[in-house]
Design goal:
This is SDR family oxidoreductase. The chain is built from 9 helices and 7 strands; from the N terminus they run βαβαβαβαβαβααβαα. With 262 residues, it is an alpha/beta fold. It has one domain: NAD(P)-binding Rossmann-like Domain (Rossmann fold, 3-Layer(aba) Sandwich), CATH 3.40.50.720. The longest helix has 29 residues.
């Protein structure tokens, strides 16, 4: 059954650009009110103004650094103060680094783990009770095709996304008797600011998709009568992810290492 977003509210992290901004636009077009969370207030305000004008939805802007302990509780309390009930949560905030582990900055990788893993779990746990009670929304955690194999040269990033995939599939099983639809979205290389932060597009494996293509994959999965616990965006990425799960592990790691280094 196609999801109904009209009259509901979606909270989107990492909403100032890329997949987050695309989710905001697509959900607003379906009638969802929005809470947009990211660090860049100017980008959020610009997007919020555009979506209010185009779709007539309520858009709340929350400029926040999510890589802090207790951020889930902080967000829930802020929603309570504003009288906002969150029906749908899109955990999109995250970033990657690329180097051999011994060359990585310890503070940067600690921030990477804090945002990609700790904040995602904390925010999910904080909003789950309300979303389960509502039973009419969705939880989407953005993982990656990096989740399907270890990636030498991006060891921390790949491991964080493997965590997100495993975590979300487990939560999906826990929530299967509720009306809440839970999905781990696994895009491959996507034309967003991710590679600007990474510092190079050389780690992009395969043909890049657009944010619109990736978000369309997620929305189609959520509209299915039996929403899958996870979905890979793009047929070539689905084939590659399937092979990574079937080939010998040592071979898969070697292929991943060469792909990232090329």
């Amino acid at each position: 059954m196609t999801m109904t977003y009209s009259g509901t509210t979606a909270l989107i992290t990492g909403a100032s650009s890329g997949l987050g901004a695309e989710f905001a636009s697509r959900l607003a077009a379906r009638g969802s009110n929005l809470v947009l969370v990211a660090r860049r207030a100017d980008r959020l305000e610009e997007l919020a103004g555009k979506l209010r004008a185009e779709h007539g939805v309520a858009v709340t802007v929350l400029p926040m650094d999510l890589g802090r302990a207790g951020v889930g509780k902080e967000l829930v309390e802020e929603m309570a103060k504003r009288g906002i009930t969150v029906d749908t949560l899109i955990n999109n905030a995250g970033f990657g680094t690329r180097a051999a582990l011994v060359e990585e900055d310890p503070e940067v990788i600690a921030s990477e783990i804090a945002l990609n893993v700790a904040a995602l779990v904390d925010i999910t746990r904080a909003f789950m009770p309300g979303m389960l009670s509502s039973g009419k929304g969705a939880l989407v955690n953005v993982a990656s095709t990096a989740a399907f194999q270890p990636i030498p040269g991006m060891a921390v990033y790949g491991a964080t996304k493997a965590f997100v995939l495993s975590f979300t599939e487990a939560v999906a099983h826990e929530a299967k008797s509720s009306g809440l639809r839970v999905l781990a979205l696994c895009p491959g290389a996507t034309r967003t600011e991710f590679f600007d932060v990474l510092g190079s597009e050389s780690a992009a494996v395969g043909r890049m998709q657009t944010s619109a293509q990736v978000v369309e994959t997620a929305l189609k999965a959520l509209d299915r009568p039996g929403t899958p616990a996870s979905v890979v965006s793009g047929w070539a990425n689905r084939i590659a992810a399937g092979l990574a799960q079937r080939l010998p592990r040592a071979l898969v790691v070697g292929i991943a290492a060469r792909a990232v280094q090329e």
